[in-house]
Write a structure and sequence with these properties.
Blueprint lengths: L14 H11 L3 E5 H18 L3 E6 L6 H9 L3 E4 L2 H9 L7 E3 L6 H10 L3 E4 L2 H11 L6 E7 L21 E2 L4 H11 L4 E5 L10 H21 L5 E3 L17 H16 L7 E4 L3 H4 L3 E15 L2 E8 L8 H5 L5 E3 L8 E7 L7 E9 L7 E5 L19 E5 L5 E5 L4 H5 L5
Parallel strand pairs: 1-17, 2-3, 2-10, 3-4, 4-5, 5-6, 6-7, 6-8, 8-9, 9-10, 12-14
Antiparallel strand pairs: 1-11, 11-12, 11-16, 13-16, 14-15, 17-18
The structure holds ligand LLP.
Ligand LLP binds next to helix 10 and helix 11.
Amino acid sequence: MPTPCEVDTTFRLDTQQAEDLARQFGTPLYVLTETCLRQRIRAYKHAFEASAERTQLCYASKANSTLGVIKIAHEEGCRIDVASEGELRAAIAAGVPAGDCEFHGSNKHPDELLFALESGIHAINVDNFEEIEHLSSLWQLRYTTKLVLRLAPGVDPITHEKIATGQEDSKFGFNISDGSAERAVLLTMKFKLHLVGFHCHVGSQLLDPEAQAAGAEALARFALRMLESHGFEAQVLNFGGGLGIPYTKDDSPLPVIEYCRRLADGVSNVLGETSLKPLLMQEPGRALVGEAGLTLYQVGVVKEVPVAGGTRVYVSVDGGLADNPRPALYGAEYTVERVSPVTESGLKRCTVSGRHCETDELFPNVLLPNDIAQGDLLQVLCTGAYNSSMASNYNRYPRPATVLLTTEGTTRLLQRQETWDEMFAREIV
Ligand code: LLP
């Protein structure tokens, strides 16, 4: 029996399944597997619990805020990390009490804060001095919500610059190095706010855990200093999310069990035998849902164009940057496969392009069968995170449906494709 951490979660469809789904729901189509999703969450939870005495896992719902996904994450014991009123409303609509949600954000609108407090949110992750001032004025209303300070620990992770957030030059959180974090603690103490601890999130799609571990240690050192200097006893240390996933065979993230141990050991080396025994928290998004999803596309046009030294084969699919903006934003790479098996004809290098009026190079360098042709279905693996949640209507394409392949073997529509009426519902001519 594999332990929950050893499960093989690479999710792909066979030809029959893919053709049936494409026929029934159309393409592009986001497909999720419940078994893999639950396994990933259990594996993470199990690994985290094995690494420290008191832990709490949250699910960063920005990765995929489809209500059905939030519901499953909550059923598996996660609190829900929300980064806007909209995400909080999504969690509530999924049946999650606000008391199981944590509210993040670098520029929360006062209305959003009030909505979160009135809903009974469990904790607010406070990002800046304006937010402390604002909360202090609301606090006279005697909310019981807990506050956690987001800190910029001053570590620079190895990842795409657009998803690195732990460095000092970041819009997120209070810098430890310039004294802002300490001043924020003193201010919350002065205002008698319900501060319970500290948070950081150093970056996303981290394949090397060192920056994340350094962030956790910096948080622990800061917590210890606040105890010694000001008698503030941190009850919570939250290390954010960030663990990467294997989008291609070149990506090899640390196994989650080693990753959690690395973070927890770092903290316990710092806190040692001191009186600080905080609850440790993490809030991964991608590592929980990314591998549980794939996207199905249908090939429309196959075009060969002359380029220096040969030809380039463009394989155009019926989706693109509106359903997966990650290649355009971060140069993200994916594993792309034709659903029907490779025939005798071998493979050729192709550029899979999207249908939008941009270069829209979705997957610029993939091997596809030589006989790739109109009507073929492609599956793009590991699209469960930051695809549907980042989708747009560019060029007025309706956003795709999401289906869930349930553990019982049935297919459940979680989100249907957008209708034309919905597309124009907000317009006034
Ligand atoms: N916690 C906080 C405070 C965050 O800002 C994030 C992600 C997470 C947790 C979850 O991070 P994860 O475990 O998923 O790496 N759109 C980008 C990712 C941006 C992530 C922003 N914050 C992408 O597609 O790669």
